[in-house]
Fold these 2 entries.
Entry 1:
Amino acid sequence: MQTDIKSLYENELTELMTGFGEPKYRAAQIFRWLHEGVTSFDKMTNVSKKLREKLVENCYISNASIEKKLISSYDDTRKYLFSFFDGETVESVLMKYHHGYTSCISTQAGCKMGCTFCATGQGGFSRNLTASEMLAQIQAEQKDNGIRISNIVLMGMGEPLDNFDNVVRFLRLVSCENGMNIGMRHISLSTCGIVPRIYELADMKLQLTLSVSLHAPNDDIRSRTMPVNKKYPVAQLLDACRYYNAQTGRRISFEYAMIDGVNDSDSCATELGKKLKGMIAHVNLIPVNTVSGTGYRKSKKDRQQSFINILAGYGITATVRRTLGSDINASCGQLRRKNRQDTATIGGE
Ligand code: SAH
Ligand code: SF4
C-alpha cells in the first residue's frame, strides 16, 4: 500500500527517508514542499530524480480537486465542492474578513450524527477524511485565489471529534513552523458534543477555540434536534465544557441556531442563562439556515435581541453571527447534496 505522505509528521518522514537510505535533511525539504502545496513529486526540484522515482513508487500526495465553485455576489465568500482520489466530495468555504482569510473546512465526507436541521446530517456518512485531505482543502483555496489563509474553522461537513486522530494530526501539521504555520489560536473546532473526546482534547491543552453546538437549553428540546444528546446529555456536556475552560483557560463559544417555535422562547433563554452562568463562555446566535425538507424556519427578528438581553442578565455575552454568502447557501452540506441529486437525475435519465 502506498503511504499518504502529506499526513506524516516530520519525524515520520525522517524515518521514511532513513528507510530509503537517504540523509535526514531530505525529510525537511520534502516536508516543506508538501506543505507549500505541491501536487506532484516532479515539482520537488531540489530532490534527486532517483529519490523522486522512489517516492512515486511508494507514496502519494493527497489533492483536493475543484468540482464546483460558487462566488457570493454579496460579499465575495467562495464555496467549493472538492473531490478526492476516490470521487468522494466535501464542501469548504473561504471567507474574507478585515483581518485576513478564513477557511471553513470539512473533516468527514458526510456525518453520522443526524442533526435534524443540518443538510450534512440528513445526507448520511461516507468516510473520514485524512489529515492530508484537510490540508489539501486549504491548499487548493490558497492556490485558486493566490492568497494565504490565516484562520481555520473546522465547521464544514462532519463531526471533527468523531474523526479524532486524523483531526489532531491535521491540527499539529497545519500549525507546524516548517509547514503552513497557522497557530492554534487561529483555529476553531466545532463539535456537537462528543463528551469523552472533549476531555481528551482539554488534556492536550492546545490553544484552540472550542465551539460547542448547543442549540437548546435542555435535554427535551436538544434530543429532538440532536440525537447525540441522548448519549451525552446537556449536563454532561456542560461539565466537559467547564473542564475545558479549567484546563486550557480558553473561552468556549456556544453555537445556538435559532429555530422558530422550537428553541427561541424567553424561557429557553432564561434556562440557558442559568446553566451557563459563571462559565468563560460566549453565545453565538445564528438564524437557522432553512434546509429543504426539514420544516424549520428562522426565528422572528425580535427573538435575537430578547436572548441577548436575558443572557446578559446572567453575565453571558451573546452576539448574532454575521451570515456570509447567504446567496450561495454557504452553510455546509447543501451544495454536496444538490450535486448528488443533479448527478442522480442525470444518471436516471
Ligand atoms: N459537526 C460539527 C461541525 C460542523 S457543523 C458541529 O455540529 O458543531 C457546523 C455548525 O453549523 C454547527 O454549529 C451546526 O450546528 C451548524 N448548522 C448545521 N446546520 C445548520 C443550519 N441549517 N442552520 C444553522 N446552523 C447550522
Ligand atoms: Fe454532523 Fe454537525 Fe451536521 Fe450535526 S450539525 S449532523 S454533528 S455536521
Entry 2:
Amino acid sequence: KCSLAVIGKVSAPASRIQVLDMRTYNSCMKASFIKGRTLKTLAPIASVAALVAIALPAQAEDWRGWNIHPDDYPNTTALEEFADAVAEQTEGRVNPRVYNNAVLGDQSDAIEQTRNGALDFANFNMGPMGPIVPETNVFSLPFLFNDVEHMHTVMDGEIGERFADALEDKGLVVLSWFDSGARSIYNTQRPIKTPEDVEGLKIRVMNNDLYVDMIAAMGGNATPMSYGEVYQSLTTGVLDGAENNYPSFESSNHYEATGYYSLTEHLIIPECLCVAKSSWEELSEEDQKIVREVAEEASTRQRELWVESSEESRQIVLDYGVEINEVDDKAAFQALMEPMYEEFIANNPGTGELIEEIRATE
Ligand code: GTR
C-alpha cells in the first residue's frame, strides 16, 4: 500500500497532484522510518514529486474540502453545490472539491489541518472546535438555546460575527453558519425518560471535555471518541450509546446498533462553512465576494435540506423498529447542568454576560 501511495503520488496526472492523499503518504514515510528502513529509498521519489508539483503552471486554486458526512447528507449536498457554484462563478479560478466521509482525517485533525492550510475548506461542528477556539465552548453548554430557530437568530446576528472573529483569529474564516438540529441520546439498553435512566451508561461524546462533565452530571460515563469509531464500539458493547441529531443517527447506521432514541435535545450546536485563512487571502477581492455569496446560498440550502432530511431519517429509524420517546421532564436534565454552568462562568470571564445576551436574543 505504501509503495503504491508513493508511486501513485508521482505518476498521477498533473491536475491531480494537489489532491493526492498526503496523509497516506506521510504515514508511509513515518512507517518506513519506524520500521528502520532508510528514508533514502523514498527520498528520491519524494523529490521527483516535488519537481512535478513545481513544474505545474501557476493556475487555479484547487481547494480540498473536508466533510465528515456521506453522500446525500444535507450538508454534503450543500457543500457539493457550493463547490460547483464557486467553480462556475469564478470561471475556474477557484476549484473546490469536497471529500466526504472524513477520508481526510477525523474532525479534530481536520480543524488543525484547515488552520494550517493543509486543507482549504470544511464544514465543522462547534463541539470539537472548543478545544481549539475556546470562545466556541459556550455552544457546548447544554440547553443554551431554546430551539434551533433561536440558534439561527443568534448566529446570523452580531453575536455570530463575534464568533466568526474568534475563529478567524485562529486561522479559520467563517463564510456561513449551518444547522445541525438538536442532539438526543440513543442507547442499546432502555428508553431515557429521566436522568436516572442514564445511570451507568457508557455514552460516546465528541472530543470536548465539557461533554464528559455533561454526561457525568446525568450519572453516565462519557467516552470522547471520533465519529468514525462509534459504530463498531456500539456493536461490540464498548459503548452503550451516543448522542446525535436524527440525520447523523440514521446516516451513520448507529440506529441499527441501538434500540432507543430519546428526545433529550440537550445540545443545539451551530456548524460553520469555513475556509483556511491562508487560502482565503490568496483570493482576489472579487473572488472573495463571489465565494461569500455562494456560501450564504449554501447555508440557506443546507437549512432547508436539514428539515426534510430530519423527517426522512426519523421515518427510517422508526420503520427499522427503533423506539423513540419524548422526554417530558427536560427541566430535570437542565437542573443538573447548573454546576457545569457555574464552573464554566467562573473559569471563563465574561461568559456569564454572553450567556445572558444569547438567552435574551429574540
Ligand atoms: C454530527 C456533526 C458532525 C460530527 C458528528 C459527531 O451531527 O454534523 O460534524 O460532529 O455529529 O458526533 O462527531
